[in-house]
Amino acid sequence: MRASLLIALFATAPLSAQSVADSSPFRALGLPTPNEYRSASGRPGARYWQQRVDYRIRASLDPANNEVRGRETIHYVNRSPDALPYLWMFLEQNICAPSSITNVLDQPPLVFLGSTFDFSCQGFAGGLTLDSVRVGGKDAKRAIYGTTMRIDLARPLATGDTIDLDLAWSFHVPEQGAGRMGHDGALYEIAQWYPRMAVYDDVHGWNHEPYIGAGEFYLEYGHFDALITVPATYVVAATGRLMNPEVVLTEQERARLRRALTSDSTVAVIGKQEAGNAAETRPTAKGTLTWHFVADSVRDLAFAAAPNFRWDASGYKGILIETLYRPSADKWEEANRMARGAIQYFSEQWFPYPYSHATTIEGPIEGMEYPMLTFVPNSPSREEQQWVLAHEFGHEWFPMVVGSNERLYPWMDEGFNTFIDLGNAAKYFAGTTYGDTIEVHPLHLYPDHSAPGAEQPIITKPTEVRDLFWDAYQKPALMMQELRYEVLGKERFDAAFRAYIRAWQFKHPTPADFFRMMRDESGMDLDWFWRGWIYTTARLDQAVDSVVGQKVYLSNRGTMIMPAELAMTFDDGTQTVVRLPIEMWNLGSHFAYRVPGSKHITRVELDPRKALPDIDHRNNIWPRP
Length: 625
What we know:
Layout (H helix, E strand, L loop, with lengths): L2 H10 L2 H4 L33 E11 L4 E11 L6 E7 L10 H5 L4 E3 L2 E3 L11 E7 L2 E2 L1 E5 L2 E10 L4 E11 L9 E3 L2 E4 L5 E2 L1 E3 L3 E3 L14 E10 L3 E4 L2 E2 L2 H4 L2 H11 L5 E4 L7 H4 L6 E11 L4 E4 L3 E7 L2 E7 L9 H15 L7 E6 L5 E3 L2 E4 L5 H13 L19 H15 L4 H5 L3 H9 L18 H21 L1 H14 L7 H12 L4 H9 L6 E7 L2 E6 L7 E7 L4 E6 L9 E5 L6 E6 L14 E2 L3
Parallel strand pairs: 1-16, 23-24, 24-26
Antiparallel strand pairs: 1-2, 2-10, 3-9, 3-13, 4-5, 6-7, 6-10, 8-9, 11-12, 12-21, 14-15, 16-20, 17-21, 18-20, 19-22, 22-23, 25-26, 27-28, 28-31, 29-30, 29-32, 32-33
Helix pairs in contact: 7-8, 7-9, 8-9, 9-12, 11-12, 12-13, 13-14
């Protein structure tokens, strides 16, 4: 038939016949088109760029007035191809201002099993006092919108140009407030505490989603130089390398730290009997001391300070593992061993820890992470203590090293982190009931959290999620386990996931980059997998319909597709198990498996290991029970 006749026939066909929706579960995801910044392989493109932001901070903590005061200089480098007429910043202490979105809405706390995260500042009338904002020595034109601030520049910042911003500010510290920072008596855990630059990237331009609690952070990498002045009786731990130990530590403490750096076992830098005794633990008990910290390739800086810390330390491959806690924290005697085990496991299994120290602080915050520093409470059980402590350290990989956007995609940090935590907990508690079952925990949670009409897609923004514990943590962890063990296989998955971490270390990946890289590295198209797990609330229901002769008739009755495992028993008592790849569903929701040989089949069971989140195991068995 001539081409002209074909065109004429098509043109006169009804519209419904011309446009047929592709309902195949294997249809391609509608991902952004690859470009010179982000390649089709999922790696950074040849012209990938990201901004650089360096901070010089001079701050003081005044416990008597419960106040932090500071000055900072921000050196901003515009590496983008765009001229920037204005800059966006975060003023996250404004979450505690009476007029903040969080306080006006008075939303209930987030509850994760036994942990509660209250972002309301618990009635504390706080907020950031911004004394000055100067650009090039002149007062900057600025507009503040809650936890964000726009600075209009006198002239656009051209590609390749730099600019320095000078700010002075102060705030009062909420008591155990804002979910992620605060103080408990004399103990201070200080985070989200200085004005910070928002990210400008090639995907969204300015990422200035306000800080209202559930969404965490998305920040640029750079160099930090911080001087923190505290009462001389206080001990400080912070992001970065301590540059003046001879000023703020005793000779005995410095000697103990040198010994700890090469020790597999815990060394007491400040022992139980010494904690709180300034005469033994401080170079002087009068006036103030200034602690100097410097960090590279980090996206944030936090610190903690208290006058009565116990301080344990050990070493792992030149990394100082530190745990600082109050004498009343009864679960923290083992904390340093837990911390060292976590850093070692994550380093050897996935990617080497890149910083000089890994420090965790016991205090009122339920669990929060910053570069080189985490906040962890004293937990009610040994198992929970290890889990929370290791989970916060797991964040050193996601998102401290792999810098995803937590304000939009918490599953890329909380979910990936929960996934790697499962293997670490299993190893630490190997041989116990807890250790031998922890990896199936997310699967066991599935029935309680996946109710139709209540469950939301993983891709949902965190501020709109009703069950963040499931959507951001446990379901993504289950997804990664299923991909590792049931779809790709451990060796294939591990190689691809390690490659993703290497490619995006200290960079900003998006979901599309992750999807493409896992496909490129593994050699398997996974759009069907991401659609079912991330973009929808699809549910799996595989079934054995019938057995006729040597054919086993299977169906996919749900909206999710997964590979299948089929266990068969024959009349001679023998058994066999076959793994059926995802391609079994290429031609639709029904598949007939032809059993080799001629032995009579007496029993068939799908998913005999109960490894899949199948919503109806009753139809997995033939003949029906």
